[in-house]
User: Which sequence fits this backbone?
């Protein structure tokens, strides 16, 4: 069984550009979560999607957005990139909405120059 | 609000025990524990639901005190493979703003030496 896959593995952008990160959950999982892991700051909750809807979001500005497609894959978009957006972005999926273990992907390392 | 983990770092010799604590200022419905090795994705260890149930996973177990809004992770007879960063994640009750929002602590770095 394939795990959670994220693409690209690495992404280099310049300040002000837009970045698009993609995530494919484990087959059968309907919930997708996005986390930002900046150096020394742990895992910061970004967004939660379930059944195609945004269910909750963390304390991030609106330039962080995303969506979930009918096949449950998800996309995270970061507009007007800032230097402090440089981080590892992790996607996780679970088979039900809450109180279920998360399976994490290996992440996309975003570097903003 | 982010749960608080303590200690921030632990150094052990193989075979020693360790306890990692996780505290929240909000009412909790569940607590998750994950381990992340350097350069890898976090891996699920266990989830505890309200009720103070203690769970075990090999030589790693955990407890959840709902009234105190605290959880502890117990690692006994540590092995080299236990090295990594341990994160607790907390989730609130349905209807609250933190429902479905698994918020992680800052992590505890565990290093096990031979």
Assistant:
């Amino acid at each position: 069984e394939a795990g959670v896959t994220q693409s690209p593995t690495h992404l280099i952008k310049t300040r002000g550009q837009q970045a698009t990160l993609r995530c494919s959950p484990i087959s059968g999982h309907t919930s997708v979560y996005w986390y930002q892991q900046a150096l020394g700051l742990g895992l910061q909750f970004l967004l939660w999607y379930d059944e195609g809807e945004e269910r909750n979001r963390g304390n991030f500005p609106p330039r962080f957005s995303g969506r979930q497609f009918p096949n449950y894959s998800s996309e995270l978009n970061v507009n007007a990139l800032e230097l402090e957006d440089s981080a590892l972005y992790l996607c996780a999926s679970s088979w039900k909405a809450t109180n279920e273990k998360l399976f994490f992907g290996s992440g996309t390392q975003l570097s903003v120059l | 609000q982010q749960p608080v983990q303590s200690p921030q770092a632990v150094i052990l010799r193989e075979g020693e025990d360790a306890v990692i604590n996780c505290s929240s200022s909000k009412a909790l419905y569940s607590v998750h524990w994950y381990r992340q090795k350097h350069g890898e994705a976090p891996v699920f260890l266990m989830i505890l639901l309200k009720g103070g149930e203690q769970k075990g996973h090999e030589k790693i177990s955990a407890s959840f005190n709902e009234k105190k809004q605290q959880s502890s992770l117990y690692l006994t007879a540590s092995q080299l493979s236990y090295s990594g960063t341990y994160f607790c994640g907390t989730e609130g009750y349905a209807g609250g703003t933190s429902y479905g929002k698994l918020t992680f602590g800052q992590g505890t770095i565990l290093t096990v030496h031979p």
